């Protein structure tokens, strides 16, 4: 049950931050909670004591509009005091809307424009051959040409210590991902480029853990089927929650749904 | 210059195991000696500039000093957002090395000309901008770039540029080099116009006109002290560069003069704000834009009023 409690806490923190700041991307944050939980609580090599943690592996949140989910996860994992989450998006705060690696402990890479993270991950994978490098991308982000430059190079170099996780929540800026640019064959695309592509339920932490730990002799692409807005019924699979922040009634309703989720 | 660059980098790489070289598939017949000597520290990422800069960033975030080499427009503008966010914003130790300053790739056409790069690169916070004018300046800058903090852009000409400075000249990032002292006017050059400026100065000096010639191999951080000295001495100032008249050396000096509140006589000689549709060598295109040695001499004569 610990995993359910922690993912619930992460979602509550996300909801609180989004409500207080009136900022966007709550749906994009809810879809990656189990992925971040699995990475930070089951996969990444992390050492040190509370508020003084060091990650020996590398993680890049390339879809950096999911920053709030990362802040909430880092807070939950003990990288910093959770009070810091109140410093999100406000005047004089410390946590910006998109990622600034100088803003908090545990953030390996700045970001906010799509299509940058996988290339940076390749550089890290070359330089840190004894560590594992994980890059989390959005499905819409795979529209960016630079992603495919990186996809080609990683397989050419056979970077077995590099894993891309694609948050396949099937919604992006203007609508359904596959209606904007059809990429229903995401699995075939990554496979054809020489990656070990695996499809998983992106909200099942045991399945995520199993596939993230599966040995591979080439770069691995975990295509995580997720639900945008996962965890709050009226936000699930709704494009508007890419942009909207909850009003008071919506906040209270969402909060009670999350409370009851145990 | 590109030969001096690679020779200097090889020398440094022998001393420093963290030096890494990336190319998006350019540098044939230039980079091979490095690739052969340091196969584990050389990477051709294919024709993919955005990826080249991203990979360089990942390496730099892991403690490497990474040089990314290509023709100027491709290593600066094709991947500009990677340069902005991954290199400049994250303040990583990536060195963008561009070859082909101004019209160096004359006949290749405007896609290969580098006329906006200085303006674009110097607008990036954290970015150091070096534009060496002769092989000695290249050598000095490469040497210092290994330990220099933050990201850098190094603008190279191409090949065959003559050495202007004596061998023992000290090259220090951020500090200009005085070639000639003079008391009638000062010519300030950057990048590949050092050679032209040198010839222009010779013409005047042969006529007994004592002009200064100063090479600004670093445009950011800029040697404002040297320009302040010139303003104090009330010498007419002429800037000379093979770059758009907007945003390069002339703009930097203009800003400083304007803010000094001292009206010194001032002239920018640069490429007018237009693309070249001419076909021809660097020398030919220079002439089309008034940048040949004799045209510059005439421009200066009429400006100073000889």
Automatic annotation (TrEMBL), chain A:
<dbReference type="InterPro" id="IPR005474">
    <property type="entry name" value="Transketolase_N"/>
</dbReference>
<dbReference type="GO" id="GO:0004802">
    <property type="term" value="F:transketolase activity"/>
</dbReference>
<keyword id="KW-0808">Transferase</keyword>
<dbReference type="InterPro" id="IPR029061">
    <property type="entry name" value="THDP-binding"/>
</dbReference>
<protein>
    <submittedName>
        <fullName>Transketolase</fullName>
        <ecNumber>2.2.1.1</ecNumber>
    </submittedName>
</protein>
<feature type="domain" description="Transketolase N-terminal">
    <location>
        <begin position="5"/>
        <end position="253"/>
    </location>
</feature>
<dbReference type="Pfam" id="PF00456">
    <property type="entry name" value="Transketolase_N"/>
</dbReference>
UniProtKB/TrEMBL annotation, chain B:
<dbReference type="InterPro" id="IPR009014">
    <property type="entry name" value="Transketo_C/PFOR_II"/>
</dbReference>
<dbReference type="InterPro" id="IPR029061">
    <property type="entry name" value="THDP-binding"/>
</dbReference>
<protein>
    <submittedName>
        <fullName>1-deoxy-D-xylulose-5-phosphate synthase</fullName>
        <ecNumber>2.2.1.7</ecNumber>
    </submittedName>
</protein>
<keyword id="KW-0786">Thiamine pyrophosphate</keyword>
<dbReference type="InterPro" id="IPR005475">
    <property type="entry name" value="Transketolase-like_Pyr-bd"/>
</dbReference>
<keyword id="KW-0808">Transferase</keyword>
<dbReference type="InterPro" id="IPR051157">
    <property type="entry name" value="PDH/Transketolase"/>
</dbReference>
<dbReference type="GO" id="GO:0008661">
    <property type="term" value="F:1-deoxy-D-xylulose-5-phosphate synthase activity"/>
</dbReference>
<feature type="domain" description="Transketolase-like pyrimidine-binding">
    <location>
        <begin position="1"/>
        <end position="163"/>
    </location>
</feature>
<dbReference type="Pfam" id="PF02779">
    <property type="entry name" value="Transket_pyr"/>
</dbReference>
<comment type="similarity">
    <text>Belongs to the transketolase family.</text>
</comment>
<dbReference type="InterPro" id="IPR033248">
    <property type="entry name" value="Transketolase_C"/>
</dbReference>
<dbReference type="Pfam" id="PF02780">
    <property type="entry name" value="Transketolase_C"/>
</dbReference>
